Amino acid sequence: MRVSEIFQSVQGEGPDIGKRAIFVRLHGCNLACTWCDTKYAWDGGSYYELSVQSILEWIQRIPSVKHIIFTGGEPLLQLEEVLELTELLHADGRHVAVETNGTIIPEDLSVFDLIVVSPKGLNTADAWYEPSIKHKNVEIKFCVHVKNIDETIDWIRSKGLLGIYLMPLGTTPDQIVVGLQAIADKMIETNLDCIVCPRLHILMGVK
């Protein structure tokens, strides 16, 4: 597998926020978002070629951390290996989550304990609307800023969705705090029932 890094930290976003986790950041992405805060995972950054077994053994050195998160880049570009490793991690008693840009939809969504989809466009969000309704393990999380927050809110309202995660764009604590307040203000203004999602790792100053 092409791996940018493996590290232990605290989940800073989404439903499992605040939980200790091991992140397996896979290398490569099928998008090139200018605002991406992990460009090193796809834009010419270095990576390691690791076997599924070697990744499993790395994770097994930290038995107290039960939450394993595949992220990227776009981890589902390596879907076959991700599925193989997920099966082994489940056998080892781990909870497996995937963070994806949503451009690849696995045939069987139930193999993962949690799928957090962060659409980079409303067409992608449309493709995940029905899966998010049918599967309790699928959550949608939008990264929003002043340029797209209104259209994102319009999409959420048009679908009648509740509990969508809204996360501010930013790479510094100050930017995150300002963005969180802007999201909260918009939710009040539009009477929107969503979840403000802080990027806890940035506020804490950890990876």
Question: Can you walk me through this structure?
Answer:
- The protein is α/β, with parallel strands linked by helices.
- It has a single domain (2-164), classed as Alpha-Beta Barrel (TIM Barrel), CATH 3.20.20.
- 33% of the residues lie in helices and 22% in strands.
- The radius of gyration is 17 Å and the shape is globular.
Count of DSSP helices?
Answer: 6
Largest sheet features:
9 strands, mixed
Number of strands: 9
Radius of gyration: 17 Å
- The CATH topology comes to TIM Barrel
Order of the strands making up the biggest sheet = 3-1-2-4-5-6-7-8-9
Topology record:
Elements: E1 2-10, E2 20-26, E3 48-49, H1 52-60, E4 67-71, H2 79-91, E5 95-100, E6 114-117, H3 122-134, E7 138-144, H4 149-159, E8 165-168, H5 173-190, E9 195-196, H6 200-204
Parallel strand pairs: 2-4, 4-5, 5-6, 6-7, 7-8, 8-9
Antiparallel strand pairs: 1-2, 1-3
Helix pairs in contact: 1-2
